[in-house]
Amino acid sequence: MAEEAIRIENVTKRFGDFVAVDDVDLSIAQGEFFSLLGPSGCGKTTTLRMLAGFEVPTAGRILLEGEPVEKVPPHQRNVNMVFQSYALFEHLDVEGNVAFGLKRKKVPKDEIRTRVADALELVDLSSRSAARPNELSGGQRQRVALARALVNQPRVLLLDEPLGALDLKLRRQMQIELKAIQREVGITFVYVTHDQEEALSMSDRIAVMSDGRVAQCGPPEEVYEHPNEEFVAGFIGISNLLEGRVESGGRVRIGEDCLAVPDLGDGHPEGEMVQIAVRPEKVAVDELGGEPYRIEPDMFTVEGEIESKVYLGVGNQLTLKLGNGGRLVALEQATYRMRADEQWEIGQRVRIGWHPEHCMVLS
Amino acid sequence: MSSRRFWDWFIFPGGIWIALLFAVPLMLVLALSFGHVDDFGRGVYGFSLDNYRDVFDATYVPVLIRSVAYALATVILCLLIGYPVAYFIARYGGKYRYALLAALVIPFFVNYLVRTYAWVALLADQGLINNLLVDWGFTQEPIQMINTPYAVIGGLVYGYIIFMILPLYGSIERMDPSVVEAGKDLYGSPLQTFIHVTLPATQAGILAGCVLVFLPAVGDFVSAQLLGGPDTYMVGNLIQDQFFAASNWPFGSALTVVMMLFLAVWMVFYLRRASKGEAEVL
Ligand SMILES: Nc1ncnc2c1ncn2[C@@H]1O[C@H](COP(=O)(O)OP(=O)(O)O)[C@@H](O)[C@H]1O
Ligand SMILES: [Mg+2]
Q1: Ligand 1 and A54: CB distance under 6 A
Q2: Is residue A268 located within the same domain as residue A182?
């Protein structure tokens, strides 16, 4: 890993008896786009606020480029924050907002002028430098907040759901822009979001949080493809969870059927009940009795029937009922291979299959 | 008749009420201010500017200046005392916010005159404070507290501070706390953040509070009458004297008109700021 920008060492934060952040241990590399992902109330903002200096950890240490900072007040920390509400200064124009930090740091006037101009250029707001925040659109306000933080060239930029208030289309556009800006300035970003898609598409690494603790931390592909617990599997994307029992030889029995799981490992003794998770897009569905069309020879297959069908445009989302009463969601992408005359009927009997390596074992 | 037109008629009861009980007396005062006093001390209507000349006579100008000075001192003290109080309640009051506000407001249900008398009991030469000071041996002689400008201004501050605290509370409570955090995040020390972020963000409340305290304070006569002496005479006392003691209603009217014009200038200034969204109209 590249040089370490932030180290969060066994940090716990309590509010009275309530544990908001529970023994979090993270290391964030220089220049990394790091996301804290989790449902509302899981402690993301509290973690971010401890990095900014607005909260002091109850226990543990926070190191910024090797220096312990947990007792350093916010105005003496070389990090900046983009607030969820943007927190713009309404009495100052755009330029005044962006120049605020540099003025407090007593940067020479000429330098302030050029740096503010550069920052506004970066977020494409040069033409609105004299506007008051209340004259700007939501997207523009968001950019001002970003420029106001970036202009200080902090070691780390903290962003608390910065796109949460924007509509979907603008959010998509800003995701791409934010990522491009981060690449351009090379500053470490710590990005808080509850939107899994956003985290997956933007981050170098994601820490998935639940009830104050980090459930899993890794690159997007890893947390998506190999969630290490039910919470992660359920929070990131949809997961089908099936009850199974471990049998000898690394096999898991689901109802009548048996399934070989490639990397079950040693952690699971025979007879243990485990959850098998499989992503909807990894599930193949074929007509029962017909020629195998999508199901491949080395797939694990079970029988079932179509319970419901939702047309999504880019495909169909099928809910399948298994022989043993379990349910499974399959996402069937519309592709060039799809036959025009193909229509699923409710109640139709089908064969359902997936590659054993696409299922995840959760305890 | 459309229902819209029907409802328009409802302006009349209130309109007539205001016209009769507010505008007409005001017009009478205005008319009387151009009059004079007859041999029996009764006001007589006329067309002379003598009363207005007298208002700006050397005898009375110091009274006008003093009134404005006392009112300004009152505003400044109210702001200095009221801001921390309002800030504390709004930001740290938590679930006790409304209880704390009520505790501040309830004394104002007591008549202003009575509350000011209480100050007399406290500040008099033989009052509570002086008695304690003498008993505890801090001084031999009572300290002169009553009949001083300090007592008068103190009375005014006590009398009107709630009009400062309430609008301040409103604007501080409405302020997004993360704006203050943003100030600190952007390298502002606590003092710099207060000056450059918190004060501007609450300027609407500050302006409203200043106007609401200044207007009644500048025309007040109770505080000066009870807590002051001849040296602390304010324009309010002067006007009251013309109507009750000296019985020179025309001169009293002229004083009133001048005061009202002066306050109207302030109101216009305030309302223009308010309409630009910088101040709040309560
Ligand atoms: N100042 C505070 N006092 C008491 N509880 C708090 C405080 N700040 C946050 N919490 C609680 O801590 C939990 C985590 O909050 P937060 O970090 O804001 O979650 P998230 O940003 O993930 O939605 C929440 O249950 C919240 O109610
Ligand atoms: Mg949050």
Answers
A1: no
A2: no
Same domain, A248 and A191: no
Q: Is the dihedral of CA A152, A156, A157, A160 positive or negative?
A: negative
Residues A259 and A305 in one domain: yes
Same domain, A289 and A216: no
- Assigned CATH topology for domain B60-281: MetI-like fold (1.10.3720)
User: Phi and psi dihedrals of A267, rounded to 5?
Assistant: -70, -5
Domain boundary pick from A233, A255, A283: A233
Cα A53–Cα B190–Cα A73 angle in degrees, nearest 5: 20
Locate A167 and state its tokens.
């509509």
Distance, in Å, from the CA atom of A196 to the CA atom of A217, rounded to the nearest integer, reads: 14
Find which of A48, A69, A81 to mutate to test the B interface (most B CBs within 10 Å of its CB): A81
Q: What is the pLDDT of residues A133-191, one digit of tens each?
A: 999 999 999 999 999 999 999 999 999 999 988 898 999 999 999 999 999 999 999 99
pLDDT at A342: 64
Instruction: Calculate how far, in angstroms, residue B177's C-alpha sits from the geometric centre of ligand 2.
Output: 15
Mutation to probe ligand 1, out of A11, A36, A37, A46 (largest number of atoms < 8 A from CB): A46
User: What is the predicted pLDDT for the residue at A2?
Assistant: 64
Nearest CA to ligand 1 atom 17: A43
Q: How far is CA B185 from CA A58, A135, B194, B247, B252, in A?
A: 21, 24, 13, 64, 57
- Residues A14 and A133 occupy one common structural domain: yes
Hey, which of A24-38, A313-327, B44-58 has the most confident mean pLDDT? A24-38
CB-CB neighbors (< 8 A) of B201 in chain A: 89-91
Q: Is the CB of A138 under 6 A from ligand 1?
A: no
Mean pLDDT, rounded, of chain A: 90
Co-location of A285 and A225 in the same domain: no
Query: Do A197 and A249 belong together in one domain?
Result: no
**Bridge partners for A42 per DSSP:** none
**Domain span at A123:** 4-233
Domain boundary pick from A214, A233, A252: A233
Which of A85, A91, A100 is closest, CB to CB, to B186? A100
Among chain A residues, CA nearest to B184: A75
Q: What is the pLDDT averaged over residues B88-105?
A: 93
Is B184 close to A74, i.e. CB distance below 8 A? Answer: yes
CATH number of the domain within which A356 lies? 2.40.50.140
Domain match, A216 and A291 both: no
Which pLDDT score, from 0 to 100, does residue B281 have? Answer: 46
Instruction: Indicate the SS3 state at residue B7.
Output: helix
Which value does ipTM take for this structure?
A: 0.83
Is the CB–ligand 1 distance for residue A45 below 6 Å?
yes
Sign of torsion, CA A173 A179 A184 A188?
positive
Q: What is the CATH number of the domain that holds A154?
A: 3.40.50.300
The 10s digit of each residue's pLDDT in A332-344 is 887 776 665 567 8
CB A72, CB A155: distance < 8 Å: no
Over residues A221-268, the pLDDT tens digits come to: 999 988 888 899 889 887 788 888 888 777 888 777 777 676 666 677
Per-residue confidence (pLDDT) for residue A3, from 0 to 100:
87
Which atom of ligand 1 approaches the CA of A18 most closely?
5
